[in-house]
Design goal:
The structure is a single chain. The protein has one helix spanning 2-23; strands at 33-40, 43-46, 51-57, 68-78, 85-98, 102-103, 119-126, 129-139, 147-154, 160-167, 180-190. The protein is mainly beta. A hairpin with a 2-residue loop joins strand 7 (119-126) and strand 8 (129-139).
Length: 194
């Protein structure tokens, strides 16, 4: 009986240790860190507030041509004397299209309200933005730019309703499947002012 109580006590203490260790805050992933943020003065500022200085690059990415991006990087080291600044090796980067949301009351242009098919692969809130990875079908020979808008309305109770609108401007995606490609794009809508 004493042995059984000792084993139960040991298991209970081990469970407490595991819970304590798993609850410690460590938001920085050192390898294959994938994060979204803004480029400010040649440095990448993540939505979580981390500052990444690009010390090495796997490819010739031009972050200075982007306002917002999603990156994959390896953290080389933490900058001494800082809590949230890191030197990184940039492995991959993709631009993020940024567009202000449109109030339904101000959506007077009918192009804004089109509802052509679009697939939301994922979405999340970070850094004051609603972020999305979108996928949509295009003819292989497409040269048209599509329009994407986040349209919102508010109720008397102060609640907001958001709708994603996509305008393909008449591009036909019902043709033979071999003539269709799947395009994807990262989009961020700043909603702090809303």
């Amino acid at each position: 009986m004493k042995e059984m109580i000792r084993n139960i006590t040991f298991l209970f203490m081990a469970a407490i240790c595991l819970c304590t260790m798993s609850c410690q805050k460590d938001d920085t992933l050192y390898y294959n860190n994938m994060t979204m943020g803004n480029i400010v003065d040649g440095r990448f500022i993540s939505d979580q507030g981390n500052i990444f200085n690009i010390e090495k690059q796997a490819y010739d990415f031009r972050l200075d041509t982007m306002k917002r991006a999603i990156i994959i990087c390896d953290v080389l080291n933490q900058v001494p004397g800082t809590e949230n600044e890191y030197d990184i090796k940039l492995n991959q980067a993709a631009p993020v299209f940024t567009k202000d949301p449109v109030s339904l009351e101000n959506a007077t242009n009918p192009d804004i309200l089109r509802e052509d098919p679009i697939y939301i692969e994922s979405y999340w809130y970070s850094g004051g933005y609603i972020n999305m990875l979108l996928r949509f079908h295009l003819p292989k020979s497409s040269t048209k730019q599509h329009m994407i808008n986040l349209v919102y309305s508010s109720s008397e109770t102060g609640k907001y309703t958001f709708n994603l609108r996509h305008n393909a401007f008449g591009e036909d995606v019902t043709a033979n499947d071999t003539d269709i490609i799947v395009a994807q794009s990262y989009v961020s809508f700043p909603i702090s002012s809303v």
